[in-house]
Amino acid sequence: MASRNGAATLPKVLDAYCRLAAPNGGWRLLVVDNGSTDGTPGLLAAYADRLPLQVLHEPQPGKNRALNRALTVALALEQPDDALYIFTDDDAAPAPDWLLQWQACAAAHADYSVFGGAITPDWAAPPPDWLLPLVPTGLTYGLTSPSLPDGPVFPGLVWGANMAVRRRVFAVGHRFDLCIGPNGAEYAMGSETELTRRLGLAGYRAWFCGAAQVAHHIRRHQVRMEYILLKSWRFGRGQFRQQRPGRFIEWFGVPRWMLMRFLLEVAELARAALLGDVARKFRHRWELAFLRGYFYEAWRGVPRAQRTVLVSSYSGELGGMELRMAQEVRYLHAAGYTGMLAMRRFGGVDEWARRLAAEQIVLAEFSPPEIFEGGWRWRTLRLLRARLAARRLRAFQAGLVHVAFCWTNYGASILWMATHCGLPSVISVHNAFPPTVFTDWHDKLLHRAFGGVRGVYAVSDSALAHFMTIYRPYLPADARLAVIPNSVDTECFKPSIAAREQARQRWQLPQPALVIGVVARLSAQKRPAMAIQVFALLRARFPTLYLVLAGTGPLESVLREQVTHMGLLPWVIFTGFVEAVHELMPALDVHLLMSRNEGFGISTIEAMACGVPAVATDVPGSADILRGSPCGLLVPADAPSLAAEAIAALLADPVRRADMGRLGRAEAVRRYSNAVVGQQVRAFYDGLL
């Protein structure tokens, strides 16, 4: 729970916690002091020896900010993914069997991840007779009756004073939206329901459990009419922030039906006043307050565009950078922002777009004129076309443009267009670029393009250093700089004996054989031909050795000819594109990446997460991961024979491989998991949107 100046209600609540029956496995209580100026800190200290209590401090006002602070601490604990995180308020007193009921409910409904419990009123004074028949107590006070039947429930009806969410939901990156809920001033209502509705869209199911009960204290002033109408206004503001645009025809930025409804409510209010019907008059005032809150947020609140990030790049194929761009959108969605992808067409993009659509990720086609990427010829015409094409960029209605740089200036045209449109931007750097020299004409345009950059992050220290060597003169002095590595889903990529056996059966690999795998595009950068040379050198010593090349690319036909010419065809498996790489990776004994350069080798950390020793060339990007690490080996970039010697020693030592795999798994979880990297991404964006 979060508490800001809760000294008036906390004693009763904490006394109720002292009477709780402990569930199997025990429990912990995290209370975040959200900048209290009353006696809250001392009061919490007085209960330290009576409860399994940990007090955290978040001085910046904001209930959701405080809850996210608690989540950071909770996720650092060693717990199973189905563990239950229960959220409540500092004025909600639980029943003695509260935790027992939650534990039983979660165990009985393992397929559900979001749970809502009963919230009964604890009136400071008896409510007036007119209140209960007229006021929607659910929206006004967050009450839910224990008489409601247990069963699946719309996630938006799970209220914050008594809700539970499984740990795995937050482990993949979901957090409370910082732009909604109590923040120490006037605010848009919907602190927890924004999260639960978002989780519903993400596919998590919700269950109502009436036996898990808390009593929500309702203060004397909260039954007054002015408070109730203020709550309706806040509810209207929150509804706007939670509403996805495009569902209804809009006039003046709000649904047309709402404007018509407002006029109707005004007419009905006048009629009720003439008839002296107090009850009907109040109902119409409540509806009008809700609509006014919605309109206020639409016309004077935070524009939707300021919460939308357009992630784009100069892209020509589906590779590690593109997968990271999609992951960026997932992180944004989990943090409560709207994110979408926009890029050029390339082979396989339609199928990828269909897969992303299942996750509610939009991938739009966007092919801007190439001011920088297209070279010197026709440069003035391309610049003119870029000015005209800026309307297309504005049409995405984004408040921030994220441009991914895959190579030296590949993406700079989009950056220039964003600045031309007056849109701020951030840059992510996905490779270690070689030095370059710009013409005077391009130099002037680069100064213009970088003028709106608010931040830059690179996937490795090497990538950032190379980028800054080239672009430091163009970058604003106050631009935020960070290194945020690529991530791996450690819940998906993990050691598995069953997956190892199944993958070997699928690809007709003998179970006792030694297998080297290369998961990478079959392109010049990854140098798969050199990996085949290394494999040929190893075959003489290890006759049961196989090579798996997982990926597609322009070199595939050349590589097949190479393997056939070398007489290696029976022992080299070309898998083509593998969507479920996590099912293949555990089948390997060693993963090899012979790249000539890397920004950050995603397949390297995927191998580590699966407990597979990783071997890569000693080049920037790969070296950032493996230098000084006991999880794998760095080999010379241009000496296949030396690489073969190092790998041979590894193949001959199963104990060493097992140790590398164990340590690699631990390092992947600690440094590269979605939860860890997602937190770094959220911190990078904090304050930029």
Automatic annotation (TrEMBL):
Residues 319-491 form the Glycosyltransferase subfamily 4-like N-terminal domain. Residues 3-108 form the Glycosyltransferase 2-like domain. Residues 500-665 form the Glycosyl transferase family domain. PANTHER family: SULFOQUINOVOSYL TRANSFERASE SQD2 (PTHR45947:SF3). This is Glycosyltransferase.
